[in-house]
From TrEMBL, chains A, B:
SUPFAM superfamilies (UniProt xref): Dimeric alpha+beta barrel (SSF54909)
Name used for this protein in its record: Dyp-type peroxidase
Family (UniProt): Belongs to the DyP-type peroxidase family.
Organism of provenance: Candidatus Avipropionibacterium avicola
Protein's UniProt keywords contain Mitochondrion: no
CC per GO annotation: cytosol
Limits of the Dyp-type peroxidase C-terminal domain: 199-380
Obligatory cofactor(s): heme b
Domain of life, per lineage: Bacteria
Dyp-type peroxidase N-terminal domain: residues covered: 46-188
InterPro entries documented for this protein: Dimeric_a/b-barrel, Dyp_perox_C, Dyp_perox_N, Dyp_peroxidase
Molecular-function GO terms, alphabetical: heme binding; metal ion binding; peroxidase activity
Keywords, in A-Z order: Heme, Iron, Metal-binding, Oxidoreductase, Peroxidase, Signal
UniProt xrefs under Pfam families: Dyp_perox_C (PF20628), Dyp_perox_N (PF04261)
Amino acid sequence: MRRRGLLGVGLGVGGLALGAGGTVAVDRALSPHEPDRLIPFHGAHQGGVETPLQAHGVFTAHDLRDGVDLAAATRLMRLVSDDAARLCRAEPAVNDQEPELARTPSRLTVTVGFGPGWFERLGLQDRVPTGFADLPSYEIDQLQRRWSGGDLLLQVCGDDALVVSHAVRQLSKTVRAFTTPRWVQRGFSTPMSTPDSPTPRNLMGQIDGTVNPRSGTDDFATVVWADRDAGVDWFAGGTMLVLRRIAMLMETWDELDPHGQELAVGRRIATGAPLTGQQEHDQPDLNATDHSGLPVIPKFSHIARAAHTDRGDRFLRRSYNYDEGVAEDGTADLGLLFAAYQANLTRQYLPVQGRLAQQDLLNEWTVPIGSAVFALPPGCGPDGFLGEGLLR
Amino acid sequence: MRRRGLLGVGLGVGGLALGAGGTVAVDRALSPHEPDRLIPFHGAHQGGVETPLQAHGVFTAHDLRDGVDLAAATRLMRLVSDDAARLCRAEPAVNDQEPELARTPSRLTVTVGFGPGWFERLGLQDRVPTGFADLPSYEIDQLQRRWSGGDLLLQVCGDDALVVSHAVRQLSKTVRAFTTPRWVQRGFSTPMSTPDSPTPRNLMGQIDGTVNPRSGTDDFATVVWADRDAGVDWFAGGTMLVLRRIAMLMETWDELDPHGQELAVGRRIATGAPLTGQQEHDQPDLNATDHSGLPVIPKFSHIARAAHTDRGDRFLRRSYNYDEGVAEDGTADLGLLFAAYQANLTRQYLPVQGRLAQQDLLNEWTVPIGSAVFALPPGCGPDGFLGEGLLR
């Protein structure tokens, strides 16, 4: 493949379709950083999902220690919920020795999830929500254990890296008596403080997340939040996270010219518009052909393969970039912490992942190196705790 | 040591001196993130030194490849200066395949420095500025090669992590034909967009940088910028950087009560005020004693040991926090990228470092694990390049 193979797929067309796309000015009006802004911790749903993307996201996974039973897991979740609630309202955690680092919340959110091992180790196999299961293996995967799996997820997001770092450490201390650390994945993005903020870009330069359901709509609720159909009552109001660590092969991606990059994606890089449209949110016309009868959006482009085939196979993308610097050979160690949230993983996520794993031009320049799934329980009230419906 | 030893040093006193310090409210009015704000690349001095601290700082070190001679080093610096100037004015680098990531500068700065090996390998030993040399070994050091040394420094700072990441990658590509990567150190802080912004905190919770010379003053220029006294004309307008990676032993630090922490530092944690004062910028009274005749600020506290003994041993602190997550044992892998800038390293930095290495209560909870020094040449004009006075 590389450039030659790609061009074989659709260049005659795409090349004509692109025109002046590369010179369109990008106008990103970013919102100011608001250090005092709180995101409520308590509520029907956990924060950090419908919350507009913050500047920093840290995902940490932990494995339950041997001997942690239901009673201990309940204590653990009470402690985590209490500390998370404090931190999110800009108060120090219990036993917080650096209380000043909690005083500027900057849209801090703490989100908790349970991996498959949580249910197994606690003997809760019969309470696993419908549609929640590990992903199958894909041929494109080159998964590393150090970025995969985990019994308990803590997702901490916020606009101030110092505040996020402090919250992660306090929560890591809280869970340590019950769990061992499995991995930490740290990401960043350009913050969105409202649902109308511009869609952020990833490190390949692409606008990423255009087709997301819009926060606050019924559509969002249908796509993201589980209802009684989950098969287990406790999960109503929860959601399921698929977190994939996707390395970007920037060396070879950079060998592609901008037209080649746009054909691989199916969108213009400068504006995010589909190759058949003018604006980011224009609906792609996957059937459009040029004067030679070739598709304008290549059939194996990312958006053609990812496009949902019905209302059921959609999800919320809420991804962060990662950048761990320069590897020994001088190449970049960076990519995407791809985070997909949906009410039912098996029904909504798997069909799309299956199509992309089978055929997606972007697979040439991306390699999944980590993978984990978590069931995120619904939110809780001030007198409750996360997971109370499951553990009680 | 630990808590007991510390208390032996000065608790009778300090305990009384602290009072309500822990409950003082912290009022941090942060400035908004300004995506369009440019910091000029060209000028008498390089950016990223007098520039108010940005939210993100990445330091990368590179070693010259064998065979790189003066002519090649000159080409290298022309290319780096050209790309840096473009990125800082929100234009893509030459050969930039993700040009959109350069469009929101967010106070991006690129700062270049030369390590001792740069001068040696290029046969420029007789042009080393007076006062520039590697640090001696200190007993407190546990230096690791992977965080130490380097022939060429690229320091990239800005308020948008995505923009910083992109700039680092573009510049790393630019230098790769001439150098091999040595290390990358990534840090963050709460941004200061003006010299009057509140002094940021480090991960121990301390306000860090109170005694800095104030940007824009003659004092700043005297402390930071080299003049003709540097012994080599080309270095006038430059400065010298000491970068120390200092691991914080948060587990044991957290075992200290807040009073113990304040005695170790010599300042109140909540306000940054010296134990003899009320406000952050109050002058510490190192001779003050309590009614028992014991010093209010312990003699081995950090500020007592670091306090300058004359005008000559001062420098600019412009440090970033680092946080690499949780180590295998569950403890935190975090600390400070301590960055000190001064006109003359030997004269200004060494006396302070010598006193601190000899005796500083904070040494109990901090371990230097990396160390590097760089001579940062003066700025250049639009037709020139960084290091032109040295290389021409």
